[in-house]
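User: Predict structure, ligand fe (iii) ion.
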Amino acid sequence: MRLLVDYHMHTPLCRHAVGHPREYAAQAVALGFSEIGYSDHSPMARDDFDDWRMRADQLDTYVAMVEETRREFPQLTIRLAMEVDYLPGQEEWIGDLSRRHRWDYLIGAVHYVSDSWDIDNPYKLSQWRERDHWEVWSIYFERLTAAAKSGLFDIIAHADLPKKFGFIPKRDLTPLFQPFVDAAASNGVAVEINTAGLRKECRELYPGPSLLKMAAQAGVGLTFGSDAHAPAEVGINFKEALKAAYAAGFKEYCRFDQRQRITTPIPF
Ligand code: ZN
Ligand code: FE
Ligand code: FE
Ligand code: ZN
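Assistant: Predicted complex:
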């Protein structure tokens, strides 16, 4: 446990998380963590795109908050990162964001299967009831595969996010998973075990055991994240995450320093 790191944490700038970054850091120290990373929702090219992320003019504030927290917790390695929404056509904007600060890593996330539907948004549940679930999952994994191939990201977030509310097609999902896993492996992009899934209706880690095993077999890198939106969620359910990593066949996980990957043995 002690050597693990939590690489997925938010800040109030995204408008749906609570607690100053220093409270997340204090919780991490209390739990015995030696390394964490902030990965708040990055701004979109247009601030009116949605209402659950920082605005473009808050990017410097975000970085300043993380740097302030670094100064307050010299005993903790604190990484500067973002969770960046991948939508086709946004590559230039994302590339521009990546050059604005000295990020340690960027987590690529697909939440949108169209410009207007973020599939994990609880206010848009009715969409799920109107759409063919296989089709939604297919579009999602097409985008996730493109994100892995884009060269823009170090890590891919919550890889099977469409399962969040339990809308899972009753057929073999391997044909959707395999192209993504292959793309992640050949482009040196890691996946994360994200414990937020345990706190959602699906009651399962992201990704589930089958996708995680495919990733391990393909030699994809691994990170761990709580997706904390409150200080009390830091490092939550990491015991389960560790068990899942081990069961899938992972022996190592990845850390990042200014976008350079550091491979580290998983402590069992
Ligand atoms: Zn969030
Ligand atoms: Fe996300
Ligand atoms: Fe997140
Ligand atoms: Zn997330």
